[in-house]
């Protein structure tokens, strides 16, 4: 694999991130420890070093498996990203949310499960709409100064709140968010309205989750296969079927699996993007990793864009209309483009 810098940092991570939500067999699905180890072996052999976890994945088993694996390998090779926010202790009212108490408690528990002294990237998992953003930022900065966390990142949070946070962090000299994790795929393009433009402005890398739309974009439902979870069925409708058909058509032209096209699309949108691809079988991972070698032509990208296009709303649609721009600004944008 090639490596990319994560956001406005010097941290080098693989161009594909391994999602570990399926490490463990709780809830009746997932990979056992031996299979998880085999997946990690295959990922590292291919040059992968970027792992995505969370305190609640498989009730903590995901982090435990990663920790046990790293204890027998070079810890510093791996860039381990994990998350805090969601409840992992039903008897403690402060065992959830973005507050400082939960942050510190959750990080200490993650460090134990991961069998490490530091977390490379710590994400706020989901915005709770309760905790002041300055409390979050100061807590993350304290953890970074203590050496328990190297970088701060954020997930599933409104763009305006992230922008407020990064601006405040810059003014206060605190560590800024360097990565943004959101659902983003050909099925879910609404982050293009404000989250992705915000990430580009602040130089943040986007790490899309569900880049294959819960399996819909692999074309498996077109073949009559059934989904495992309700979330997958919620993504199945007339629009998603048309998009999946277009993905399969492009894949057939290229002679690759549809999943490769879906993954590569998220990496070909003109901004820093490292998709998170989960796997519960070595064969799944090996197939996903081949997506980095797929090249989508301008025609392929246009075809996929047209079938999955969304309404950006105001002011996105207003700005997207080149004719309107020229009329309003007297050709200003055209002149700037020529000057470039």
UniProtKB/TrEMBL annotation:
Query: Is Oxidoreductase a UniProt keyword of this protein?
Result: yes
Q: Which SUPFAM superfamilies match?
A: NAD(P)-linked oxidoreductase
- Residues of the NADP-dependent oxidoreductase domain: 15-308
Stored Pfam families: Aldo_ket_red
Name the keywords, alphabetized: Oxidoreductase
Q: Which InterPro entries match?
A: AKR_Detox_Biosynth, NAD(P)_OxRdtase_dom_sf, NADP_OxRdtase_dom
Q: Does the keyword Oxidoreductase apply?
A: yes
Q: What is this protein called?
A: Aldo/keto reductase
């Amino acid at each position: 694999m090639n490596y990319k810098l994560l956001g406005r940092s010097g941290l080098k991570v693989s161009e594909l991130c391994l999602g570990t939500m399926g490490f463990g067999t709780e809830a009746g699905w997932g990979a056992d420890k031996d299979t998880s180890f085999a997946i990690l072996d295959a990922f590292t052999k291919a040059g992968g070093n970027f792992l995505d976890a969370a305190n609640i994945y498989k009730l903590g088993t995901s982090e435990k498996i990663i920790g046990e694996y790293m204890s027998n390998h070079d810890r510093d090779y791996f860039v381990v990203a994990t998350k805090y926010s969601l409840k992992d202790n039903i008897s403690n009212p402060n065992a959830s949310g973005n507050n400082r108490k939960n942050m510190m408690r959750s990080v200490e528990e993650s460090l134990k499960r991961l069998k490490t002294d530091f977390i490379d990237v710590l994400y706020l998992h989901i915005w709770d709409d309760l905790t002041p953003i300055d409390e979050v930022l100061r807590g993350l900065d304290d953890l970074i100064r203590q050496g328990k966390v190297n970088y701060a990142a954020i997930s599933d949070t409104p763009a305006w709140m992230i922008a407020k946070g990064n601006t405040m962090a810059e003014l206060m000299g605190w560590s800024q968010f360097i990565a943004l994790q959101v659902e983003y795929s050909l099925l879910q393009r609404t982050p293009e309205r404000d989250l992705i433009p915000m990430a580009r402005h602040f130089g943040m890398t986007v790490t899309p989750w569900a880049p294959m739309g819960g399996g819909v974009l692999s074309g498996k439902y077109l073949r009559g296969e059934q989904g495992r979870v309700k979330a997958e069925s919620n993504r199945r409708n007339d629009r998603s079927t048309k998009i999946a058909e277009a993905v399969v058509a492009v894949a057939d032209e290229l002679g690759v699996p549809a999943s490769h096209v879906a993954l590569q699309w998220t990496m070909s949108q003109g901004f820093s993007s490292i998709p998170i691809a989960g796997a519960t079988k070595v064969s799944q991972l090996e197939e996903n990793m081949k997506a980095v070698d797929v090249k989508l032509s301008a025609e392929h990208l246009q075809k996929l864009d047209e079938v999955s296009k969304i309404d950006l709303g105001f002011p996105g649609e207003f700005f997207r209309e080149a004719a309107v721009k020229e009329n309003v600004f007297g050709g200003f944008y055209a002149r700037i483009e020529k000057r470039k």
